[in-house]
Amino acid sequence: MIRIAESARDYTTLLAIQIECIEGLTDTYTPDEIQHWVDYLKNETADRYSEYNNTVYVDDSGKIEGFISWKTTEGSSASIESLYIRNSYGGRGIGKLLLQNVEADLPGKTIHVRSTLNAQSFYERNGYIYTGKSISRAGFMISLLKKKL
Ligand SMILES: CC(C)(COP(=O)(O)OP(=O)(O)OC[C@H]1O[C@@H](n2cnc3c(N)ncnc32)[C@H](O)[C@@H]1OP(=O)(O)O)[C@@H](O)C(=O)NCCC(=O)NCCS
After folding, report:
1. Would the CB of 90 count as within 6 Å of ligand 1?
2. Mutation test of ligand 1: which of 20, 23, 122 has the most ligand atoms closer than 8 Å to its C-beta?
3. Interval 94-121 mean pLDDT
4. Domains of the chain (ranges plus CATH)?
5. For ligand 1, atom 34, which residue shows the shortest CA distance?
6. Which of 54, 64, 113, 144 is deepest in the core (most CB within 10 A)?
7. How many other C-beta atoms lie within 10 A of the C-beta of residue 37?
């Protein structure tokens, strides 16, 4: 089931999922980069999610298994900040489901994504165009992509 996250308890779960996912990106980032990124996140509060709309996927027991954070920006744009699916729930179509759920709310918008390098091809498979590289707020390399809906 998909729902909107909005409680402090939800945000704490999102932070835990994000950290779990980042710790799994060992094929893409060095141990130092991952450690630095996790430390950066641990210094943030779960409030970091409150500036976004957070759509979550919950399993039959109500446990959050993944989430997508997004917001509309100026003009006809929107941005996706985060999309993280628990490692044990990957490959079941949840990432695609959350992405399509957000896209359905944004007709006519151009969505900009700041993606970890490993997920670039996931977005390309979902119609996003690669536009270049950038450095994230935590200081590591990411890919920029966009899609006109
Ligand atoms: C990347 C991520 C969000 C994908 O979510 P997921 O639920 O595992 O992916 P899905 O099962 O919905 O896959 C949808 C499609 O994308 C493909 N896909 C999934 N991960 C992929 C990847 N890393 N590269 C290329 N294709 C990928 C699947 O094969 C599937 O293809 P299909 O539609 O032809 O069957 C998830 O693996 C994840 O959270 N990874 C770690 C964190 C991360 O990197 N997040 C992105 C930060 S912006």
Report:
1. yes
2. 122
3. 96
4. 2-148 (3.40.630.30)
5. 125
6. 113
7. 22
pTM higher than 0.85, yes or no? yes
Q: Is the CB of 136 under 6 A from ligand 1?
A: no
Say which residues have a Cβ less than 8 Å from residue 59's Cβ, sequence separation at least 6.
65, 89
Per-residue tokens: 23: 């710790």
Whether 126 shows a pLDDT value over 90: the answer reads yes
Q: For residues 120 and 83, give the distance between their C-alpha atoms in angstroms, rounded to a whole number.
A: 12
Mean pLDDT of the chain: 94
Nearest protein Cα to ligand 1, atom 41 = 21
Decide if pLDDT at 47 tops 80: no
Q: Average pLDDT for residues 50-74, to the nearest whole number?
A: 94
Cα 54–Cα 57–Cα 111 angle in degrees, nearest 5:
45
Ligand 1, atom 37, lies closest to the CA of 90
* Pocket lining: 69 vs ligand 1, CB cutoff 6 Å: no
Q: State the pLDDT at residue 123.
A: 98
Angle (CA) 67 71 75, round 5°: 155
Give the span between the Cα atoms of 102 and 18, in whole angstroms: 19
